[in-house]
Structures are given as C-alpha cells and as structure tokens.
C-alpha cells in the first residue's frame, strides 16, 4: 500500500493548485477566442527590437500622427492640472467642451444641440457606448471588409454579430447603397461605416451617403458613421467629400469622432459622439455606469484644440499629410506597386503587393527583417483579398519616406520581385 509522507502531500497540494490555475486559464469567456491580436502590434514590437539593436527602422505601420500634441493644447492640459481639475466631471463631458464641439459643427453650418454631444474616451469609448446602446444579442452589425479591425470586437462584446460587406477598389473600398441593401438581412440592426476609412483612406461621396442613409432608414435600422479622420481630407479630393460631416446629410446618423487624429491627441484618450435627441438619456446612463466620466484634464486641454492657435497647427499638419501621401504613392507606383485608389483622406495608403510574388504577410515580415521597413499586412483589416494588400501609414516625415522607398527598391531588386 503506498504511503504518503508530508513531502508527498505538499506535492499533491502544489499539483492541485497548478491544476486549478490551468483550469481557470482555460475557462475565460468564450468571446475571447474570437478576438485576434493586432498584427500591427507584433510588427511594432519587432521593429522596436530592431531599433534597440541599433537599426534605423522606417515606420509605415503606426496609425497615429507622428507630431506631438500641439503646444496650446499641452499648455491648457498643464494648466488644468495646476488648477486641480482632476476630479470626475459629468458623464457626458464638461459643458464648455460640448459647446465648443457644437460650435465646430456650426462653423460649417451644421446645427447640433450640445446636449446631443457626449464626450467619450476616444472613438473607442464612443464605439463601446453605441454598440451597447443600439445592439441586442444576436443582432447583426454590418461592417466593411477591409475595415477598422476593432469594429467586430465592439459588436461581439454585446453579443451582437458582425457581418461584413466585402468592398474593393471598384467602389473605392466603400459599399454602394445596393451593397448595403443586399447585405441587410432580417437580423440586421445597424450599419457602421467610416469616411475617410481605415485602412484605405477613402471617402463616401455625399449622394452615396444620402442613399445609404435611405436604405438604412427604410429598414428601421441605425446608421453609425465613424468620422475619426474628419479634417484629414486631401485637398485634391475635397470635391469627393462634398461635405464635412454626415450630419449635413441626416441628423439621425450616430456620428463618432475623436481628438486622436486631426487634433493629434491619441494618448489623451478623448473623443465624442453625436446622437439623436431620443438617445441622449439612455446613452448618458450607459456612460455614467461604464465610464463615470471622460478624463478631466484631457477635456480641459481639448478646449484649446478649437482655438485659432491650435487649429492653425492642425491645418498645417493636415497639409503635411497630403504632401506625404503624394510623395509615398508616387514613389510606390514608380516601383511598380498597384495603388488602386489614391487616399482621399486619413493618413493611409492601401497598397497591392501582388506584383512582388509575395503574399502580404511575407512581404511585411521580409521587408522588416531584411530592410527594417515596417508596414502592416492586410490581414489586420479583414479577409477579403487581404493577402495581396498592405497598409502604409504616412505618419513619418518626408526624409523617412524617401529612405523607406530607397530600401523597398533595394528589396525588390534583391528578391527579383517587381
Ligand atoms: C476608423 C477608426 N475608428 C476608431 C478608432 C479608435 O480611435 P481612438 O479610440 O483613438 O479615438 C481608430 C483608431 O485608429 C480608427 O482607425
């Protein structure tokens, strides 16, 4: 008969503790299995390793402005801290900021009652609120493929089902009204589009937007429009945009916006949503419960974002992005890359790498490992033809863009590609 000593008992205890740990690890909620890591984060991590090892990496993977937050905003943030403005605010944000945002729309003749504006923790906070507000479990949310990768996760968090509409260069990577109508099924509740979009930088024209809105309205659905890259239109394509916000087309669109991109405040974590009047009360309850309030110092800093001194800086930076777009796209075209659509906004170009004979994932890793140029593979943005596309973010200066193009040229020669 086996005999257990104190040591054996200790071993048994340890084994069962470890087993409990393993069991706990394997019983996380099922939804986690459907959430994919950002490939771009892996690219960024590897790029950082190379930088630490002394290599000069050219960064085309980063989806945020390379410019620091404009000095007037930083000063306003510092002042807020000095003034002790560090307590909670109203869940919907401080009144002067909601008024300043309403004025921002009023400057283009779009009337928005400040009560309909809810200040959020970035557009991400806005997406959390809107999916919780609008979607029941098993409701479908229509999104595009390619599109912003987190959209589907926000839907899943509330038990809803993301349903993709595949879009390609023939429609500027935006769905046509007919595509929305065809995709809309009995379980569909809402449509989420972005204009300008990530990863393609393309814009939905005004008349298409109005027609898409009509399709959604006829089906009693909700239309969410992500305008996070608003303000970053290319002058060359300004005619395409024909409007500054979807609110010019219809006031019942749920609009998302953020201080992250045009206003250069990614790390401050501040954005806003505009909702129809009837949604103000329920969305306020959600905001109170989920977030209590947006960051207080960030809100006071953001007040300065609308003043002339900061606006001049934002406009100047938007122009710099346009110049970089031209430089990068022309350079890549000369190297034989297909760029089916010139970016009309944001700071991204969605580039076809199929002529290199490599799929987008191999292209990205080889370019990084061998030439220290970081780009994001298309698979981060969906599955539709994603193995042939990579996203270049021109969030780096012109000298780095030249350097990146030189290295890509060398890579193509060395690989016998292109
Ligand atoms: C289309 C789109 N929507 C929303 C977000 C979230 O941005 P944030 O939470 O920084 O405002 C991003 C970020 O890159 C984006 O590209």
How is this structure best described in words?
The protein has 418 residues and is α/β, with parallel strands linked by helices. The chain folds into 2 domains: 138 residues, Aspartate Aminotransferase, domain 1 (Alpha-Beta Complex), CATH 3.90.1150.10; 236 residues, Type I PLP-dependent aspartate aminotransferase-like (Major domain) (Aspartate Aminotransferase, domain 2, 3-Layer(aba) Sandwich), CATH 3.40.640. It is built from 14 helices and 12 strands. The chain has a 7-stranded mixed beta sheet with strand order 2-8-7-6-5-3-4, with helices on both faces. The chain has a 3-stranded antiparallel beta sheet with strand order 9-12-11. A two-stranded parallel sheet has the order 1-10. Strand 5, helix 8 and strand 6 form a beta-alpha-beta unit. The N terminus is likely disordered. It binds pyridoxal-5'-phosphate (PLP). The site of pyridoxal-5'-phosphate has 13 residues, from helix 5.
Features of the shown structure:
418 residues; Aspartate Aminotransferase, domain 2; single chain; alpha/beta; 13% strand; globular; 7-stranded mixed beta sheet; binds pyridoxal-5'-phosphate; 44% helix; 3-stranded antiparallel beta sheet; 2 domains; Aspartate Aminotransferase, domain 1
Give me a quick take on this structure.
With 418 residues, the chain is α/β, with parallel strands linked by helices. It is built from 14 helices and 12 strands. The chain has a 7-stranded mixed beta sheet with strand order 2-8-7-6-5-3-4, sandwiched between helices. A 3-stranded antiparallel beta sheet has the order 9-12-11. A two-stranded parallel sheet has the order 1-10.
């Amino acid at each position: 008969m086996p005999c257990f000593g104190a040591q054996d008992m200790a071993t048994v205890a340890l084994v069962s503790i470890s087993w409990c740990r393993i069991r706990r690890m394997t019983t996380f909620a099922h939804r986690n299995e459907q959430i994919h890591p950002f490939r771009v984060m892996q690219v960024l991590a590897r790029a950082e390793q190379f930088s630490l090892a002394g290599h000069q990496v050219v960064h085309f993977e980063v989806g945020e402005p390379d410019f620091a937050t404009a000095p007037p905003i930083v000063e306003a943030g510092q002042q807020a801290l000095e003034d002790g403005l560090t307590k909670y605010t109203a869940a919907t944000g401080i009144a002067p900021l909601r008024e300043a945002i309403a004025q921002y729309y009023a400057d283009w003749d779009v009337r928005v009652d400040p009560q309909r504006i809810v200040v959020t923790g970035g557009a991400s906070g806005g997406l959390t609120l809107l999916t919780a507000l609008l979607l029941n479990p098993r409701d479908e949310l229509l999104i595009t493929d390619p599109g912003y990768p987190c959209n589907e996760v926000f839907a899943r968090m509330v038990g809803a089902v993301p349903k993709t509409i595949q879009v390609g260069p023939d429609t500027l990577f935006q769905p046509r009204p007919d595509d929305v109508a065809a995709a809309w099924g009995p379980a569909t509740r809402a449509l989420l589009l972005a204009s300008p979009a990530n990863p393609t930088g393309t814009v939905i024209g005004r008349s298409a937007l109005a027609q898409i809105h009509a399709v959604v309205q006829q089906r009693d659905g909700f239309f969410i429009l992500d305008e996070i890259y608003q303000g970053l239109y290319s002058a060359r394509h300004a005619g395409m945009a024909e409007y500054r916000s979807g609110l010019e087309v219809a006031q019942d669109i749920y609009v998302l916006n953020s201080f992250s991109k045009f206003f250069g405040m990614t790390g401050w974590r501040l954005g806003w949503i505009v909702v129809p009047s009837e949604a103000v009360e329920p969305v306020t309850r959600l905001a109170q419960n989920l977030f209590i309030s947006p960051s207080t110092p960030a809100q006071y800093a953001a007040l300065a974002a609308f003043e002339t001194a900061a606006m001049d800086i934002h406009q100047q930076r938007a122009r710099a992005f346009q110049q970089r777009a031209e430089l990068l796209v022309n350079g890549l075209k000369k190297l034989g890359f297909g760029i089916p659509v010139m970016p009309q906004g944001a700071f991204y170009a969605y580039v076809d790498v199929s002529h290199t004979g490599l799929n987008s994932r191999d292209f990205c890793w080889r370019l990084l490992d061998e030439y220290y140029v970081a780009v994001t593979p298309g698979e981060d943005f969906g599955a539709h033809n994603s193995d042939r596309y990579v996203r270049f973010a021109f969030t780096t200066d012109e000298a780095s863009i030249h350097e990146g193009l030189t290295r890509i040229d060398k890579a193509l020669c060395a690989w016998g590609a292109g």
